[in-house]
Write a structure and sequence with these properties.
about 260 residues, alpha/beta, 7-stranded mixed sheet
Length: about 260
């Protein structure tokens, strides 16, 4: 999961063809997030996955959230892990492993090849803001979700660290177009059409960064942060160093998830 700064579909595809850049971002957050529970741990702690359930994950990326979660996966009658990228699915297979009840499939949330009322739980984390036709995607989720089932969809807020970084690099207009298609602030309204009960849960966190080169690497992993990609490494570093206070940079993070039924 990462914070996008552009609606450019080519940039989105570039970021998710393989897990390399994704891993850079995940490792960065693991290293510098102040909430040491961990976002993935927090997300899973909110999931009600019981024995015999059928679970669908959409846009699951490399599947890192499920590493070491075999006990949860084994509860499921069926666990279908999907992504649009074949490369991501191959990495997910390595991370999650082969299990009799786990199926890996290419899938587009806007056109799901599953029967009506197929799943007890559907998960879509950090991906709804990329969906071109979100209404269609949410309608498809509702269609494949059983009556009484639950849809979990994590996203970010509109007051995040990329906005602060854009300010530091004096990015605006075409150089910096935050993707606010589906956020903590506006997501509930978009979910209340297909779902009767929508609850927002917020994950309290921030970044406390002590190594400037790690932040430079993070920025360079964002294919959608185009203007920064054109700045030489040393200049990026100089701009960031200006904002170090007592050996660190502190930046806001705003993440959460919706629980829909």
């Amino acid at each position: 999961m990462q914070i996008g700064s552009s609606n450019d579909s080519a940039a989105v595809k570039a970021q998710y063809v393989t897990s390399k850049s994704y891993d850079v971002r995940v490792n960065f957050h693991d290293m510098y997030s102040t909430n040491k529970l961990g976002y993935s741990n927090w997300l899973i702690s909110n999931y009600d996955i019981r024995k015999g359930m059928k679970v669908l994950e959409l846009g699951g990326g490399p599947g890192g959230m499920w590493i070491g979660r075999h006990e949860i996966i084994s509860r499921c009658e069926k666990f279908v892990f999907t992504d649009l990228s074949e490369g991501m699915l191959e990495t997910a297979k390595k991370n999650i492993g082969e299990h009799d009840n786990v199926e890996y499939r290419i899938a587009d949330i806007q056109d799901l090849d599953f029967d009506d009322n197929s799943f007890d739980v559907v998960i879509a984390n950090g991906m709804l803001y990329h969906v071109p036709n979100l209404d269609k995607g949410l309608s498809e989720v509702r269609r494949v979700l059983k009556d009484g089932g639950v849809f979990y969809c994590a996203t970010f807020g509109e007051n995040n660290f990329t906005d602060k970084l854009a300010e530091w690099f004096e990015l605006s207009g075409e150089e910096f177009k935050p993707n606010h298609n589906f956020t903590i602030q506006n997501g509930a309204k978009k979910l209340q059409g297909p779902f009767d009960d929508v609850t927002a849960l917020v994950y309290e966190d921030s970044l406390h960064i002590t190594e400037v080169d790690h932040l430079v690497g993070y920025l360079q992993s964002l294919a959608s942060f185009k203007a920064v990609l054109n700045i030489p490494f040393q200049r990026i570093r100089e701009i960031l160093v200006e904002h170090f206070v007592d050996g660190a940079i502190d930046l806001p993070k705003e993440y959460g998830t919706f629980v829909c039924s």
